[in-house]
TrEMBL record:
Residues 731-757 have a biased composition (Low complexity). InterPro entries: Kinase-like_dom_sf (IPR011009), PASTA_dom (IPR005543), Prot_kinase_dom (IPR000719), Protein_kinase_ATP_BS (IPR017441), Ser/Thr_kinase_AS (IPR008271). GO terms for biological process: negative regulation of fatty acid biosynthetic process. It comes from Alloscardovia macacae. Residues 452-519, 520-587, 591-654 form the PASTA domain. ATP binds at K43. Gene3D superfamilies: 3.30.10.20, Phosphorylase Kinase, domain 1, Transferase(Phosphotransferase) domain 1. Its EC number is 2.7.11.1. Keywords: ATP-binding, Kinase, Membrane, Nucleotide-binding, Repeat, Serine/threonine-protein kinase, Transferase, Transmembrane, Transmembrane helix. It catalyses: L-threonyl-[protein] + ATP = O-phospho-L-threonyl-[protein] + ADP + H(+); L-seryl-[protein] + ATP = O-phospho-L-seryl-[protein] + ADP + H(+). This is non-specific serine/threonine protein kinase. Residues 568-577 have a biased composition (Polar residues). Pfam families: PASTA, Pkinase.
Length: 757
């Protein structure tokens, strides 16, 4: 399956941006925590390993391990989760674990060493103090890193030291499984401890060995061991010893030899027991002191026959690849007890600070660069062997004086002959070597002299120089100056950008040095990358001379998921070469179009269809604000993010609510008494009142009827909420009142009847 990286994580909380680094198990990308508005580093497991249980277990273990740690020298973890994704090749659903970490802006120690080679002793001390502080804390929390190396140490722009990548870390109670048959050897070969290389149980001292290798590389500019393969390097960690730092960089303080020897001892019992002890010695050196380092062989050879014999026996054993056994006399000397006769020239004890005069493969940390077999060493070997032989034969002198004398004479003669043979052989070898060196020096001197006369060092041109200054510098150095125009540069016009050959290189006098000056920032059109994958869009933009900035996710109804929807600045617009272009990636959803409310049903339906949605129309209520046939509301609401092609409901208005009317016949009320007329109108739902100046007596007779101020003279549909007013005249007495009452009763019946109709 292909390697696929999602553009967002945790339901859009984290946006995934540019690649910061990658390894065999995961890649680290720069991201944005949209909830907190901060830049983070996101370590995402490779999607092609999502079904590999071994890698899943290791990745989850890293998250669990680093979550326990809270230290200023350890990269902090903010969040961890698993993202459910769909494999674009197979369609299978995968769970992709990721870790959200502190984003450290800076460089790894590996990159710094690659540029600088070696570090000065002050910077080396500061980096070691930070790294050991982190290891001291993680070890106290029960976690062994197991992969300490320059690539896992970050130096921030503020100079803070950060240890990262606990990808193969283990809890101490699980350390026995560090190098199982199923897992194999884990770690980086150039910084692997001997016990890791042998597949043994590791402990905190394995991290300290790796830290010692990192210290060695900072001091010398190279790892302690190199080889053609990881296996070859691991073998050297187990069976060979490194060269002393002072033999590589003679100006170093010799105390670094002892510190590295202690940290990189093959036998872990001879190393620093804790990171705190290691850190204490580094702090002492940084403060200008000299730490008392125990267990490192820094003692001059012991005098005396017994000690010499022990040394010869140890050397022979070491030469044969076996472990040297310490004689009883030497053991007594190590413990500070009285020496046996012949063990020293008049000395009864050995100071307790002295160590064995013979290094063994288990405790030695360095090999000297000195040539083996020098004249001095041959002489010492001869003297040591003679003293050892005399010491062994001294015990027989009293029992057989004659035999002892003969044996002693033979031994002296044999030793003298051997000495002369070695000396002749050494003289012959070194005479040949010296002659070869003299010849080689003469040839090289002649070659360099001729080359020096024909060559010169190319001057270094800088951005602060004008073209005239650059030309003068080149020609004064004996070269021909040739100016070139750099039309790809985003620097100001006339600014130096590059040269060939590079400054500091050696070139033939009279040859041409080409120097490029910027033509000024060039404006060019932003290419259209819509519909492309993120990686393809990045390549197209970079090819056009732009840098890719932030990557954000947004809805789109026309672009497939994880493809580019647009850029900022927009495609086709002109922008300065070298400027930043931001990318927007389709989320797979689409937003319901805005502006649908108030549109006619036909227009709103067309807008939805043009955006890939299905329109569903439903009748709504009356509305005083939205005309009939126009959209009142939309469900889901405008701007809502939904799946592409979803149905959207349009609720259409019925318009203004129609006014309710009542049929009003004025003849049924004119001529009636005011009392009867108002009662009859009340039955229809009206509240009638007398006009100003009209009588409201029971005997008053209605002469005119008005609806909303307009006289009703014939049967008319009047709004049910109309205002009814009556004009009246005074009645003509009681008889009229009786008549009126009689008539009103008849009118009331008719009115009731008309209301029924």
């Amino acid at each position: 399956m292909s390697i696929f990286t999602p553009s967002t994580l945790s339901r859009g909380r984290y946006t995934v941006g540019e690649l910061l680094g990658h390894g065999g198990m995961a890649e680290v990308r720069k991201g944005i925590d949209t909830r907190l508005g901060r830049t983070v580093a996101i370590k995402i497991m490779r999607s092609d390993l999502a079904n590999d249980q071994t890698f899943l277990k290791r990745f989850r273990l890293e998250a669990r391990s680093i979550a326990l740690l809270n230290n200023p020298n350890i990269v902090s973890i903010f969040d961890t989760d698993e993202e459910e994704i769909t494999d674009p090749d197979t369609g299978n659903t995968l769970r992709l674990p990721f870790i959200v970490m502190e984003y450290v802006k800076g460089q790894t120690l590996r990159d710094i060493l690659k540029v600088n080679g070696t570090l000065n002793q002050r910077d080396t001390s500061q980096i070691m103090l930070g790294m050991l502080n982190a290891l001291e804390y993680s070890h106290r929390m029960g976690i062994i890193h197991r992969d300490i190396k320059p690539g896992n140490i970050m130096i921030s722009e503020q100079g803070a030291v950060k240890v990262m990548d606990f990808g193969i870390a283990r809890m101490m109670d699980d350390s026995a499984a560090t190098l199982t048959q199923s897992q194999g050897v884990v770690g980086t070969a150039q910084y692997l401890s001997p016990e890791q290389a042998r597949g043994e149980v590791v402990d905190t001292r394995s991290d300290l060995y790796s830290a010692g290798c990192v210290l060695y590389e900072m001091l010398t500019g190279r790892p302690p061991f190199t080889g053609d393969s990881a296996v070859a390097i691991a073998y050297q960690h187990v069976s060979e010893t490194a060269t002393k730092p002072t033999d590589i960089i003679p100006a170093l303080n010799p105390i670094w030899d002892a510190v590295c020897a202690k940290a990189m001892a093959k036998d872990r019992t001879q190393r620093y027991a804790t990171a705190a002890q290691f850190r204490k010695d580094i702090a002492t050196i940084a403060a200008g002191g000299t730490p008392a380092i125990e267990g490192v062989d820094r003692v001059a050879p012991l005098a005396g026959a017994g000690a010499a014999a022990a040394g010869a026996a140890g050397a022979a054993a070491a030469a044969a690849g076996a472990t040297a056994v310490m004689p009883a006399a030497n053991a007594a000397g190590m413990n500070g007890t009285a020496g046996t006769p012949g063990a020293g020239a008049g000395s009864g004890t050995v100071p307790p600070t002295q160590a064995l005069p013979q290094e063994t493969t288990a405790t030695r940390a360095f090999d000297s660069l000195d040539f083996p077999g020098t004249f001095g060493e041959d002489m010492n070997d001869f003297e040591d062997a003679s003293m050892a032989n005399l010491a062994h034969s001294a015990a027989d002198v009293n029992s057989n004086p004659g035999a002892a004398a003969n044996s002693r004479t033979q031994q002296r003669q044999a030793a003298l002959a051997e000495k002369q043979k070695k000396r002749r052989k050494a003289i012959t070898i070194w005479s040949c070597v010296a002659g070869a060196v003299i010849i080689l020096a003469a040839v090289l001197g002649w070659w360099f002299l001729g080359r020096a006369q024909a060559s010169a060092t190319v001057p270094t041109i800088t951005a602060s120089m004008t073209q005239a200054q650059a030309k003068d510098a080149v020609e004064r150095a004996g070269f021909v100056f040739q100016a070139e125009t750099d039309s790809e540069s985003s620097e100001d016009a006339g600014t130096f950008t590059k040269q060939d050959p590079a400054g500091g290189a050696s070139a033939r006098r009279g040859s041409t040095v080409r120097v490029w000056f910027s033509a000024g920032p060039q404006s060019t059109a932003v290419p259209d990358v819509s519909g492309m994958t993120q990686s393809a869009a990045r390549q197209a933009l970079e090819k056009a001379g732009f840098k890719v900035g932030s990557v954000s996710s947004e809805d789109s109804d026309s672009v497939d998921k994880d493809k580019v929807t647009r850029t900022d600045p927009a495609s086709g617009s002109n922008a300065t070469r070298g400027s930043t272009v931001n990318l927007y990636i389709a989320s797979g959803n689409a937003s319901v179009p805005t502006g649908l409310t108030g549109q006619t049903q036909q227009d709103a339906t067309k807008i939805l269809q043009d955006h890939g949605f299905t329109a569903v129309v439903r009748d709504g209520d009356y509305s005083d604000d939205v005309p009939a046939g126009s959209v009142m509301t939309v469900d889901p609401a405008e701007g809502t993010s939904v799946a592409r092609g979803s149905s959207v409901t349009l609720v259409v208005s019925k318009g203004q609510k129609p006014q309710e009317t009542v049929s009003l016949d004025p003849s049924r009320y004119v001529g009636q008494s005011y009392r009867n007329a108002t009662w009859a109108l009340g039955v229809l739902g009206f509240t009638a009142s007398a006009q100003n100046g009209s009588s409201t007596d029971d005997s008053a007779v209605v002469t005119h009827i008005y609806a909303n101020g307009t006289e009703v003279t014939s049967t008319t549909d009047v709004p049910k909420d109309a205002t009814i007013t009556l004009a009246t005249r005074a009645g003509s007495g009681s008889s009229n009142s009786s008549t009126s009452n009689s008539n009103s009763g008849s009118t009331t019946n008719q009115q009731n009847g008309s209301g029924t109709n």
